[in-house]
Structure formats: C-alpha cells, structure tokens
Input
Amino acid sequence: MAIKISQGLKQSQNLAMTPQLQQAIKLLTLTHLEMTNVIAEEMVENPMLEEAGNEVDIDTPSEGDNEVREATSDDFSEAPLMKDKDDFDWDSYADSFNSNSSTAPNMASGDSDEMPTYENIVSKGMTLAEHLEWQLKMETLTEEQWKLANLIIGNINDDGYLDVNFDEIIAESGVDREDAFDILEIIQRLDPVGCGASNLQECLLAQARIAEERSPLLEKIIRDHLEDLQSKNFDKISKTLSVSIEQVKKTALLLQNFHPKPGRLVATPDTHYILPDIYVVEAGGEFVVQVNDEGIPRLKISKLYQEMIKKGAGHKTDEASEFVKDKLRAAEWLIKSIQNRQKTIEKVSKAIVAKQQEFFKKGPKHLKPMVLKDVANEIGMHESTVSRVTTNKYMHTPLGTFELKYFFNTGIGGKDGGVDIASEVLKLKIKAIFDGENPAKPLSDQKVVEILARESLTVARRTVTKYREMLGVAPSSKRKEKN
Output
C-alpha cells in the first residue's frame, strides 16, 4: 500500500495582544479616580496628547462611531507584538512567577455582600476568595458541588495557586473524581483566569484555553515543553513538534500576555476613596443613566506634532520621525480606549437600570434576580467583559451609592412552582422576620422557612441558617430572653 506524502501551506489567525490592547482592557477594570490618574500620566509621557477646549476637534475619533464593542487588535494599524528578532525572555518571566511582587493592575472591588446603608465615601476591597465566590454565585451548583468549590477556593493562596494537593480536597469532599475536576475547571475559568491551578503549567494552560484565539501550538509547548522553553532549547521543541524554530519563538511570545500569578490581579483588601462612574436620575417617571465624565480630560492630538509628521513623511529612517509616529499611535489608541470604556460602562449600566426599574422606584425589596449572562446577552458582549466593567464601578442613585456588582443576584425560592427572588431580597426578608419576632419566643430557622413558604418562597432550612449567620443573628436557643 503506497503512502502519499504531500506538503501544503495553511493560513491561520492568532490574536497578538499588543500592549495597547492590554491597556484598553486594563482601563475597563480601573476606578474613575485610577483612570484619571492614568490619563494624567499619559499626558505627561506622550507629547502628542493635549487637552481639547470647547471647540470641535476634527482630530479625535469620530463622535458618530457610537457602536460599543470589545476592543480587538484590528482597531488600529499596530506593529505586531511578535518580531522575528525577539525571543521570549523566560528568565524574567520565571522571576516574576517566583517573586512576591507584581505589577498587575489593581482590580480590588468593593464588598457587595451587604447593601450599603451609609454614605459611600470609602470601600472595603474584596479578597481573592470573595471575588471568586461572587462569580460562582452565577453558576448553578448543587450543595455537594458548592462544598467542593468552597474547599478549593479556601485553599487558594494570594498568588492564585492551590496550597494543598487536589486529591486531598477530593477525598475530603467525597465528590466523584471526574465531577471534582469539572468544578476545578469552572473555578480556573473565572476571573482572574488560572486561579486554582496546582502549578505554573496548569495555570498557563487554563489561560491558554480561555484565550479569544486559541493556539494549539502554544498549548502543546506549555503541556510538554515548558522545561525546554525555560532552558531555551528551541531546537528540541522545533524537532519534536515539527515546526520551525522561528514559529516556536513567536508562539512562546504569547506567554507575555499570561499572568504567572493570577491571584495578584486582585488586590488585598484596603480602604480607598471612591467616585461614582454612573449617576442614575429620574426623568419622566423613568430612571436613566448619566456617565460621570468629571475629571476626565477631553483629549486631542497635538497640531504641532502632526506638522512634524507631515514634514518628516519622506524620512522613514529618521529616529525623531519614528518616535513621533509611535507616540501618535499610542495617543490615538488611548483616546479610542477611553471612549470605548465610557460607552461600555454606559451600555452595561443602561441594561442594569432597565432590568431593575422596580428597584429604583420601590426600593431594595424589589431587586430582581440577574446574572452576568443576562447583561452580556443584552448588550452583545462576553461575560468576562461585563465582569471587568462591574469591577470597582459605582452607581450613585436616589437610594444611595451601590457597586454595580450589587445588582447581580442569583434567583432563590423558585423551586416547585415557587416565586423566584434575588438572594439579596431574600436576605432582607429574613432580616425583617427576625427583627419582628417575639423576644420571648424567638423563631427557629425551620419556622422562618414556613413563614417564607406562605409567600410562595421555597427555601431550604440550611439557606435560612446561612443568611441568619451572615446577618449576625444568633440561633433561637441563644436569642430567647429569660425573665
């Protein structure tokens, strides 16, 4: 039998996440104050940027471009991140993995577990565990799966890695091994991606699998040749995988977009001042959104440097001309990124307000169940983008100032034909029941279940117990007043 061997060329596309695209994503996660600081720094470092006056500026991106979308590498004509002469600096990457420092952006978010009942001038940042648990609430998990998920998250260190052997966690939970790995995979896909990994290889693979444009070659290198990459043995990788050394080096450069310590992307709790990103006001009986642009300068491209580019158009090798062109591209991208950030926040906020009109009209007891996917589907964006937009973003309303995450609650109480309400509303109902009880005859958790059932709310006793503990209410045996 003859074996036919043929050669052919295959064209494929891979996403090269440029520093400019990383900057656009980072802007989505920053607070209002942090973003104004970033803009101020960029205006100092980039002479192409100027603050526009009240006149109409023809050099800024068109105001007619109202389409809000997720930024892609095709937005601007950027030089590719991977160049033939570049090698992936594994030593520096490994150092960042082994060190205790991190230059990752601050993604601390406010504590949304309790509804704010005070003037929100400060916020307590979420821990990594709280950040992961908040996202898991959007998943449909059984009690057994929740137990395992809590075990996993409870054993993740600040860098994002498991501190214990995963087999020990499986044994303690009693969950089937295959099901356990399914839960672990769900956690590793949460933001920041890769948390819950046992080692660097597993962490990088989790990030490679979630990439917008997956690279099978990169996944093979991570899975089978991480040590070869560390020792810069590109020749061995090339021969084993039957690809050119040049392709190995280019693919390895994609690791620059991954974080070796994803847990560090979520800052440790501290107290910080906040400014609302959105104002909600009543107009004609409806509540509408106004994005806070205060303190955000309206940027334009410097006329002086535009003239320099025109004069130096015929001298491509001139270093000054190349410097100006680079700064021009960076300035254009920053202006576009700021506009995209503000429009994305506006679009997400409008979707929230449209869904929660009853909340704004009648108060917290009318908060509706809503998850990230609801808003993502409404505005045509990925859930991860909605998660970034709601991180560290606050909405000032007639009822007070709330973090955007506050409006996302899973539905509870809708089993067996019951009414589905937001978990935050259920907490308020349980609190009201305990507040109104007879001190001489305190209500048991089971009695609260029965009271809720009268309102067609089917809730398990353990759920009432969990919320009672969250509210700081002691068990009935300890609440009874003695004569």
